[in-house]
Design brief:
Order of helices and strands: HH
Helix content: 55-70%
Number of helices: 2
Radius of gyration: 30 Å
């Protein structure tokens, strides 16, 4: 994520929280409470999601650095499977 995109994403989430706080202070009654709860809740959920995304992106970057630094171990040699039939588990076959 670019710096500009990060700034826009976090900024819009913070703006939602600020507008929700302003609605709680200025709009009276149940309408103000509902607007405040919806806007503040949405902003905080978006912020939480962005933080988790940042953690995931940093782990991806660390994993890429690790893969570039240490070559992967060689693959184990392929083994042929033995195609012998497994023993019968139900006893001998009955003939008619």
């Amino acid at each position: 994520m670019s710096k500009r995109g990060r700034f826009i994403a976090y900024g819009s989430a913070v703006v939602l929280v600020v507008i929700g706080t302003g609605c709680a202070a200025t709009v009276g009654g149940v309408t103000g409470q509902i607007l405040a709860m919806a806007l503040i809740g949405s902003g905080l959920v978006i912020l939480t999601g962005l933080v988790f995304m940042e953690v995931g992106l940093s782990e991806d970057r660390d994993r890429e650095k690790e893969l570039r630094r240490v070559p992967p171990p060689p693959a184990p040699p392929r083994r042929r499977l033995d195609h012998a039939r497994p023993p019968r588990l139900r006893g001998p076959r009955h003939e008619r």
